[in-house]
Design goal:
731 residues; Rossmann fold; globular; Dimethylsulfoxide Reductase, domain 2; Barwin-like endoglucanases; alpha/beta
Length: 731
């Protein structure tokens, strides 16, 4: 019997094989098979019949049983009996835990429900367990909303302003490209199932270029590595446009038919000659010119850009500038050409049925998760358009009188009412949120009631008043889309929950009952929610049925086998064209053209700060961690060994730092200590701390987020993890 035809509980004596899907924040969203014997999962393997997974899993999920059966699992509800942050708990019953939460929420809601704050992100990407009953619960409660901005919002906003939706090159077509630019992505670590397609292209003669300040595992294996300074990618893209336009390398027919605002874009690009941008990026003029010519004269050419390059003040504009390039040269004409940031917009999800925003009754405020430290301390970070910087005069902004465009002005305003309760699930903000010192100070507040629903006792869980045990992906039902391929997937529970663990969906149903919520939507089963999630009437969802999805485990969207979404225009923007000029942005008081916005902490924007803190720091994912997931399990910690700081020999010598020395990394926000690794993996002027380490597992109880900023991006108000300056010294 083919694997795709296994029924829900295919029995072979006391053995069954169950279809699942990877829940983690990764583009690949793998289809996997779990072998269960006598009620215990004994094997997990990639599904051979799923075109993206192709029979193999990443190093992390390949050992997922270590996560599910870890002795570190939280198995029972617990209440805090020690000092906040010490992680001392006593076991209680589910009834006591739920009654305590409901009573506290009722007490706070009677005064002002907006003092209750949900906090969640991508600990699981499934619709049922990440954005269904939970959203309904907090909407009905009247709690503050959460802007979930911490990963991708800036890039998504920049891409949306240019292309329309997050739709791009089909990853399965990368094997047919003649030139692939991997821009701000460590594909081998964070998108490993695309790598075989890239290798296929290379076997056919393609060239692969990595653009990254860090010589990652991926950059090491590319034909060429270009290392700009962090946050300067937008300037590099504009300089490429400058060369392409000046040398008449554009696809004039494509530009005339399918783009909007070329003449204005041409004027903007002329402001960024390679000579100017070489000084901004730290690259040579020759490198920039060669890259532009190679990009414009090779077909098909695909850009794989990722979210690392948008984690700075001008992140949205950086992605916007890069995504103008394919239309300029007509790269979208080829199925193997164009650009890929995310495939998520290709799917059509019925968010109204899934989340039920109609339950909102009180016009609640929204708290930005990227500034949760400020919020917990009583302040809200608010953005206002900066109408004094930038160069808008050619597009009817006469108050703009030259200079580079700038990020919005940010102000801290008092938060009224203050946050009195926070419910955290699918996230570990004490480790992953920026400006950790403020985040931890907020969690230490004795007047803050904190609930954490978790698989493990994370850094955040140590501050909980009530700690609830959560299920892993092998123990609950869910439905998934992907942001790195074009397949819907189902995850079936393979085993019973370990200990007294419960999935998010069940806990919120129980809490809704205790809160007295009577709407029928709080009684929906997980399968009913999954059925509601799919917008079956959308053209790209045609042919997908819940029944067949449940049977097969995965189904491809209804798009052509050779999918070239913008070969003849049909962009998802208001104009239907690739918008070099965006009227939507103009109406928001934002530069309607692609622009370079320097990092807030850079030589261009803060020359005095550079004198004090001359090194830029970035903290991309460690190979064996996924954000803070897997970062507590012994085999993965052993593989990473210990926190390390990559520093270039020139920067190390200037500070008398030798390979293996313990160093202190610091700025005005905080500090952390780790071992130096002197190598040329980090370019001069940049240090790299692979992350995210749990604080409790480091020697000093700190990690890279002790020095990162709560400043927000220009578009999307996202996090700016890679917009930070530091100094490094031996300890």
């Amino acid at each position: 019997m083919p694997l795709g035809e296994y029924p829900d509980a295919y029995l072979m004596q006391d053995r069954r094989i169950v279809r699942g899907a990877c829940p983690h924040d990764c583009p690949d969203t793998c289809s996997f098979l779990v072998t269960v014997e006598n009620g215990r999962a004994v094997k997990i393997e990639g599904a051979e019949d799923h075109p993206t997974t192709n029979g193999f899993l990443c190093t992390k999920v390949n050992r997922y049983l270590e996560r599910t059966y870890s002795p570190q699992r939280v198995l029972y509800p617990m209440k805090r009996v020690g000092e906040k942050g010490k992680g001392i708990f006593a076991r209680i019953s589910w009834d006591e835990a739920l009654d305590t939460i409901a009573a506290k929420f009722k007490e706070i809601a009677a005064d002002n429900p907006q003092a209750i704050q949900p906090y969640s992100y991508a600990g699981t990407m499934g619709f049922v367990q990440s954005q269904s009953i939970d959203r309904r619960f907090f909407y009905k409660l009247g709690a503050s909303l959460l802007a979930r901005t911490i990963c991708s919002e800036a890039g998504a906003a920049g891409y949306r302003a240019t292309i329309g939706l997050s739709i791009g090159t089909d990853p399965e077509q990368f094997g047919n490209a003649k030139l692939i630019i991997i821009w701000g992505s460590n594909t081998i670590t964070s998108n490993v199932h695309l790598w075989p397609k890239i290798l296929e292209a290379r076997r056919k003669g393609a060239k692969v270029i990595a653009i990254d300040p860090y010589r990652s595992l991926t950059a090491e294996k590319c034909d060429e590595h270009i290392a700009p300074l962090p946050g300067t990618d937008g300037a590099l893209a504009l300089a490429m446009m400058n060369v392409i336009i000046k040398e008449n390398l554009i696809d004039r027919d494509y530009v005339e038919r399918y783009t909007l605002g070329f003449e204005l874009l041409r004027e903007r690009a002329l402001e960024y000659p390679p000579s100017k941008v070489a000084k901004i990026t730290g690259l040579s003029e020759e490198t920039i010119i060669k890259l532009a010519r190679e990009y414009a004269t090779t077909k098909p050419v695909a850009i794989r850009l990722n979210y690392g390059l948008q984690r700075h003040a001008g992140g949205g504009m950086a992605v916007r500038a890069i995504t103008c390039l394919p239309a300029l040269i007509g790269a979208w004409r080829d199925a193997a050409g164009g650009a890929l940031l995310s495939t998520s917009g290709t799917f059509s999800i019925n968010n109204a049925a899934l989340e039920r925003p109609d339950l909102i009754w009180n016009n609640p405020r929204t708290i930005n998760m990227s500034a949760i430290g400020d919020a917990l301390l009583g302040y809200q970070r608010v953005q206002y358009p900066d109408r004094q910087g930038g160069n808008y005069q050619r597009v009817q902004y006469p108050d703009r009188q030259g200079g580079d465009s700038r990020a919005p002005i940010e102000k801290l305003e008092p938060l009224d009412p203050p946050i009195r309760a926070i419910y955290i699930y699918n996230s570990n903000p004490a480790a992953i949120a920026p400006d950790s010192r403020k985040v931890i100070a907020g969690f230490k507040r004795e007047d803050l009631f904190t609930v954490v629903h978790e698989i493990f006792q994370t850094d955040t869980a140590d501050y909980a008043d009530i700690l609830l045990p959560a299920t892993t992906q092998l123990e609950h039902f869910d439905i998934h889309k992907a942001y790195g391929h074009l397949y819907m997937l189902i995850n079936k529970p393979a085993i019973a929950p370990v200990g007294e663990a419960k999935p998010n969906s069940e806990v919120f149903r129980l809490l809704a009952e205790r809160m007295g919520f009577t709407e029928d939507c709080f009684k929906d089963s997980d399968e009913e929610i999954a059925r509601q999630a799919i917008n079956y009437d959308h053209p790209r969802m045609q042919g997908i049925t819940f029944e067949e999805l449940k049977e097969r485990g995965w189904m491809r969207l209804s798009v052509p086998e050779t999918y070239a979404p913008f070969a003849e225009g049909n962009f998802l923007t208001p104009s239907g064209k690739c918008e070099f000029f965006s009227e939507t942005l103009a109406k928001q008081g934002v530069d309607p053209l692609p622009a370079y916005i320097p990092p807030r902490e850079s030589a261009q924007a803060a020359p005095e700060l550079v004198k004090k803190y001359p090194l830029a720091i970035i903290s991309p994912p460690a190979h064996n961690f996924l954000n803070s997931s897997f970062a507590n399990l012994p085999s993965f910690v052993k593989a990473e060994k210990e926190p390390r700081l990559e520093i270039h020999p020139v920067d190390a010598a200037a500070r008398s730092i030798k390979d293996g020395d313990r160093v202190r990394v610091f700025n005005d926000r905080g500090e952390f200590k780790l071992k130096a690794r002197v190598s040329e993996k980090a370019r001069p002027g940049v240090v790299v701390a692979l992350s995210v380490w749990w604080k409790k597992l480091t020697s000093d109880g700190c990690n890279a987020n002790d020095v990162t900023s709560q400043g927000l991006t220009d578009l999307g108000a996202g996090a700016t993890f890679y917009d930070a300056l530091v100094e490094v010294e031996r300890t």
